[in-house]
Design goal:
Number of helices: 7
Distance between the termini: 74 Å
Strand content: 5-15%
Structural class: alpha+beta
Shape: elongated
């Protein structure tokens, strides 16, 4: 993206190098003449303000331009937030990227004491997991599958298919599998 200052410099170059008028340069560049003629006025307090912004940014590296603006206001500066942001960008200041610690393996915060992570299967029929799988038949009717898997052997103990979800896991079926 070309900044307005760069566009003005390009228009000045066209005028100096090729003798093109401002009107023609503005038409070629697709800009209004007023935007090419505009010269920004630098306020007298800008060097002192940039020094103060740079000093605060060095002292508080975790702060962004909004917090620096608040600190400037507390110190008596009457300055617009947009101006602080413009100067912040011109100075090339940035907040350091926050590095988060990688999460460790094992139980996650909030995991239940009875979860498989806390108590892995030690032998056959020690820990079972159940899951519902949803699918559709060829004619569009819903089909639900109940799976019951032994975590130690990874063996599928029950695979029950039904058009509707079973309301209860019958205690008799899993108990009969223990024997």
């Amino acid at each position: 993206m070309v900044t307005p200052d760069q566009q003005r410099a390009a228009a000045d170059y066209l005028g100096d190098e090729f003798g093109i008028s401002q009107r023609r340069a503005s038409r070629v560049m697709g800009r209004s003449r007023s935007s090419l003629r505009y010269r920004r006025r630098h306020p007298r307090d800008e060097p002192a303000l940039t020094r103060e912004i740079r000093r605060l940014a060095r002292r508080f590296p975790r702060y962004g331009y909004r917090r620096i603006h608040a600190m400037l206001a507390r110190r008596g500066w009457t300055v617009n937030l947009k101006r602080v942001r413009r100067l912040w960008i011109e100075l090339g200041l940035k907040r350091p990227v926050r590095l988060r610690k990688p999460r460790k393996l094992g139980p996650k915060p909030g995991a239940s004491v009875n979860s498989c992570i806390e108590q892995p299967a030690r032998f056959k029929n020690d820990v079972w997991t159940c899951d519902f799988i949803h699918d559709r038949t060829a004619d569009g009717r819903p089909l639900k599958w109940l799976t019951l898997v032994d975590e130690y052997t990874r063996e599928c103990l029950v695979l029950h298919a039904a058009v509707t979800k079973p309301v209860r896991l019958g205690v008799s079926e899993p108990e009969s599998l223990r024997a």
